[in-house]
Amino acid sequence: MSTTKWVIDPTHSEIGFKVKHMMFTNVSGKFEKFEASIEAEGDDFENAKVHFSGDIDSVSTGNADRDGHLLSADFFDAAQFPKIAFEATSFKKLDEGDYELTGDLSLHGVTKPVTLAAEYSGQMKDPWGNTKAGFALSGKINRKDWGLNWNSALETGGVLVSEEVRLVIELQFIKQ
Prior knowledge:
Strand content: over 45%
Distance between the termini: 16 Å
Oligomer: single chain
Helix content: under 10%
Strand order of the largest sheet: 1-4-5-7-8-9-10-11
CATH architecture: Beta Barrel
CATH topology: Lipocalin
CATH superfamily: Lipid/polyisoprenoid-binding, YceI-like
Largest sheet: 8 strands, antiparallel, barrel
Radius of gyration: 17 Å
Number of strands: 11
């Protein structure tokens, strides 16, 4: 069977995250500059090779002051660690629309394995004849596992920024 390559359509994809602020509300953010590809046997994505990289300095939460703090040495340290990357080690089909994506996430000079739920939305031709495939990925990581340790204690107890980061990722790929 031949290998099919898919590249991300960045205009119709979003690499997002959510973190609890003050222990009771979520703050959302995303990376605006990224690239990704999938290499799969035929049209079945099981055992596909998935590659992703993103520019740390493209992080956006909708607040310039917060974005600047995230880029500083307190968090991402974008000057020293300009990229986030993911390389799949396993892409298992669980049933018709559900997969489990496992791979190595490199961030802040640390590489650790993560497992994400991947919901396959199917394939469709766009109005220009391109075949597209859609995936929704979700999962959780602990930011401290990657050395993102900054925090501030709250007067009433607890901390300002949760250690848990929820990943909320919507992807559209174009068949090459």
